[in-house]
């Protein structure tokens, strides 16, 4: 090899090394997937929801008093998050506890206030207090990451220059703002940006609703076979639960008051399993919709084949949810089995999951939830301390969990067993500690029930 060739090879090698170093620097410092802080905009670049309601009156009425609209002002969220933050001293844990605003007050976060949950709420601009709102979602262009609100937005310049609003129609027209078709708005990723949550320091998966869907049977590489978040939650309307085991009929109508008739308009009720928040804010309709959803999500079965061995097996099947049951903040949610066995004289011989006078659950209740740990194998109640997952006992979509319960010895023939699957949005004991006993009494929804003679 000549000196020139040797020099040429050295130059090539140096360039290759430099490109690798630059790639690493880009991934660590420049790649938007790695950035936690999105660009900051002026609050006056966003449009108030009631401005949008001037033309989109039906959609505005659906959104109003929804969980999205109330995400910032939800008194249960505020009370519990404040309570959990107060007991913390570890800076890494405090950082997570302060990060709730990224999804609950998104317009405020990207316009500079609040930056953390403990900021003075009285100083938050009124527009930012409207929660997850029209202009925030319809200014979205994509996602930097599918967790911790990785949404990217391009807002206009306020009421007089609203810019481009994006949505699911290719032929939209507006005299007020520019329009653009957005496939992103029809796919689950836009939902996943907030419905997947990682601990901001420890990176523990705290909520994984999007991932549960993506890894489950409702996802398909074939878009025609795929059932997205919108395919259930933005099809539901009063009397139409739109779960995996009910019909999900199209919702014909108009997206804008004087607009064309469409085969399907995505509804904007944004109902999940929270039956309390809408009711607390005077919206009985959305509360009932949440109950209808829960009532069409799971089934129970009883297997008596081991009765001679004094055992019963209860099957809990997820028939309607495209994600695990329960989902979201699953360390706090309560989905449990109440099981009562009586002999032929009507005397209770076995009971589990029966609430006490305070509506608290006994320690031995069969509950479907996630238990987080402190990194040393000890369970933690405060999600800000979650360095590990100790237990994840929940029901995947279209799958079952089986619970075998021991029965007392003796003659049970002629007796009866009743199993009931109940749900509430949080433990009543925690809520009483956080906000004061009796201030919030969460509704308990019967999801499914089964009875059998022994």
Summarize the entry for a quick read.
With 454 residues, this protein is α+β, with helices and mostly antiparallel strands.
> How much helix is in the residues?
25-40%
Tell me what portion of residues adopts beta-strand conformation.
15-25%
Number of helices: 14
* Secondary structural class: alpha+beta
Q: Mean pLDDT, nearest integer?
A: 92
Element-level helix/strand string: HHHHHHHHEEEEHEEHHHHEEEEEEEEEHE
Oligomer: single chain
Summarize the main sheet. 7 strands, antiparallel
Gyration radius, in Å: 25 Å
In total, how many beta strands?
16
How far apart, in Å, are the first and last alpha carbons?
A: 90 Å
Low-confidence stretches: 7-36
Q: What is the 3D shape?
A: globular
Keywords:
single chain, three-stranded antiparallel beta sheet, 454 residues, 14 helices, alpha+beta, 16 strands, seven-stranded antiparallel beta sheet, 25% helix
């Amino acid at each position: 090899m000549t000196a020139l060739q040797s020099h040429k090879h050295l130059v090539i090698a140096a360039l290759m090394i430099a490109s690798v170093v630059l790639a690493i620097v880009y991934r660590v410092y420049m790649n938007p997937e790695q950035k936690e802080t999105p660009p900051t905009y002026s609050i006056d670049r966003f449009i108030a929801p009631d401005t949008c309601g001037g033309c989109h009156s039906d959609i505005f009425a659906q959104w109003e008093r929804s969980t999205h609209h109330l995400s910032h002002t939800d008194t249960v969220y505020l009370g519990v998050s404040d309570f959990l933050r107060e007991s913390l001293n570890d800076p890494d844990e405090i950082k997570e506890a302060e990060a709730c605003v990224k999804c609950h007050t998104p317009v405020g976060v990207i316009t500079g206030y609040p930056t953390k949950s403990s900021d003075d709420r009285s100083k938050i601009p009124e527009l930012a207090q409207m929660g997850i709102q029209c202009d925030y979602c319809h200014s979205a262009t994509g996602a930097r990451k599918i967790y911790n609100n990785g949404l990217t937005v391009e807002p206009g310049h306020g009421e007089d220059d609203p810019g481009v609003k994006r949505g699911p129609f290719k032929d939209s027209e507006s005299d007020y703002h520019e329009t653009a078709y957005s496939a992103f708005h029809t796919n689950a990723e836009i939902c996943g940006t907030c419905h997947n949550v990682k601990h901001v320091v420890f990176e523990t998966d705290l909520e994984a609703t999007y991932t549960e869907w993506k890894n489950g049977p409702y996802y398909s590489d074939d878009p025609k076979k795929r059932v997205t978040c919108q395919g259930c939650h933005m099809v539901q309307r009063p009397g139409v639960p739109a779960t995996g085991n009910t019909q999900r009929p199209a919702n014909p109508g108009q997206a804008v008051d004087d607009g064309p008739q469409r085969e399907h308009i995505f509804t904007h009720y944004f109902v999940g399993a929270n039956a309390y928040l809408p009711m607390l804010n005077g919206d009985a309709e959305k509360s009932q919709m949440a109950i209808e959803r829960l009532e069409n999500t799971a089934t129970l079965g009883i297997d008596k084949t081991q009765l001679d061995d004094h055992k019963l097996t209860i099957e809990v099947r997820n028939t309607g949810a495209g994600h695990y049951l329960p989902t979201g903040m699953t360390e706090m949610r309560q989905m449990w089995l109440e099981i009562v066995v009586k002999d032929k004289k009507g005397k209770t011989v076995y009971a589990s999951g029966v609430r006490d006078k305070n509506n608290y659950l006994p320690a031995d209740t069969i509950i479907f939830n996630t238990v987080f740990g402190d990194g040393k194998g000890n369970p933690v109640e405060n999600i800000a301390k979650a360095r590990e997952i100790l237990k994840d006992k929940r029901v995947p979509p279209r799958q079952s969990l089986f619970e075998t319960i021991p029965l007392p010895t003796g003659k049970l023939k002629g007796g009866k067993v009743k199993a009931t699957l109940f749900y509430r949005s949080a433990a009543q004991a925690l809520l009483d500690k956080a906000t004061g006993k009796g201030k919030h009494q969460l509704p308990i929804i019967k999801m499914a029930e089964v009875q059998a003679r022994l």
